[in-house]
Fold this sequence. Notes:
Elements: H1 15-26, E1 40-46, E2 52-59, E3 62-63, H2 69-79, E4 87-89, E5 92-94, E6 96-102
Antiparallel strand pairs: 1-2, 1-6, 2-3, 4-5
Amino acid sequence: TVYADVEKVPEYPGGAPAWGRYINRNIVEANLDPAVDCNVKIKMIVDATGQIRKAVAVHGDTEVKEPNANEKEVLRVYLKSGVWTPGTCGGNKVTTEFVQSFTPCIK
């Protein structure tokens, strides 16, 4: 079972401050294209052990079949991020689907 409505969504270990440090160390600016949309949305499924089981770029509710350069770079960073703190529902760790927005470019 994959939950979308949970008490606590998965997060990178250490929360937002640690996620920010991880991003700053791992985004390769040369892989980004400022000519395309810099607002990237990633839909992820993180299982009850914290493993990322799926990560795809989305436009609205639609999964992107051919990601642009920015989406590819953000996906690369997400997929190498390791084990996350899993989501919880009813106090139990559960497999969770959620969407995160990310803006890798500075215009």
